Amino acid sequence: MAAEKPHMNLAVIGHIDHGKSTFVGRLMFETGAVPPHVIEKFKEEAKLKGKESFAFAWVMDSLKEERERGITIDIAHKRFDTEKYYFTVVDCPGHRDFVKNMITGASQADAAVLVVAAPDGVMAQTKEHIFLSKTLGINQLIVAVNKMDAAKYDEARYKEVVEEVSKILRMIGFKPDEIPFIPTSAFEGDNIKENSANTPWYKGPSVIQALNNLKEPEKPTSLPLRIPVEDAYTISGIGTVPVGRVETGIMKKGDQVVFMPSNATGEVKSIEMHHEEIPQAVPGDNIGWSVRGIGKNDVRRGDVCGPKDAPPSVADEFTGQIVVLQHPSAITVGYTPVFHSHTSQVACMFMSIDKKLDPKTGQPSEENPAFIKAGDAAIVTFKPTKPMVLEPAKEIPQLGRFAVRDMGMTIAAGVCLSVKKKE
Length: 423
Prior knowledge:
Distance between the termini: 50 Å
Shape: globular
Number of helices: 8
CATH topology of the largest domain: Rossmann fold
Strand content: 25-35%
Oligomer: single chain
Radius of gyration: 22 Å
Number of strands: 23
Structural class: alpha+beta
CATH class of the largest domain: Alpha Beta
Number of domains: 3
């Protein structure tokens, strides 16, 4: 039975135009998630528009109007199966939305495939995406050295790219020798399902074998329940129904729960997943749940549901370790950009810059620096401008990560070290 297979969320990351959509389309096709006649139809449509190489990318963008407007939808959740797992692809579209989606979408990824085009090698966003996936707690990585057809299946070029990417991975604590680097052509299908005759020099796993080799993530069921609210609906006859993904813990019918920071409490009446009622929900489940005693205005996106006796922490102040990815000038005390964490978005002020860290070793290199800039890692104390739920990453990692955004870009990514709770 398909339902018995363990589920994994897979993020596909990498620089724009390195072939992510084609790669995902090819995976869906090779695993039978998209029937061949659909691909044929896309191929014909693509040919008519003179965009032949986009056929597989179209699988991900199969909504026609979106195709006409030429954009990839927010996050396309797509399912495909290998022998061992069933995967949901968290497709991360354009770079700007990528990070927001990483925080709310792929911070839920159990593993990532980094797509790097062989002709181009490492680009700015390649680096950034590797940094972010690490900050966001993705520990399992597969690297697809893509567009090998455009690099004439040259082993020397493949090795150069592997070395470039390995350098960055080592810098931030990944172990390149534990990561498969697979030479692929998503367009031609090389090394996606089985090993390709075009790369006789490559002896490692195909992409699908590498996906089967991933370790099943442990479900954090022993941690206290935490469900960030993505949205809340009012359904006649039932009442207010929040929806969200269980990050940690277990929710059962009859549980006494509290929503923070709004502090609304009630009893869980029913839990529903994929339109079926279920007796309990575990980490990874996307659910809707109804709560007795909760009104329409008590719950909103950004709230976190937890047990009444172990409520989510509301931060009055918090200390975080951040990496500044990009900023046009220097960042000083008083700067107040928007923090994206789980489903919440709250402006937070830089209260004090406590330590600058050496990015290579993680050791402090300067106490109380006057400013930090792009490329710096630092420990900073922040004050949210309104109540927000955040947990120390050591205690509940799923609710301890955040991205800092301003001017339409991601300024920094970080993890929460400690929380001074609101009294």
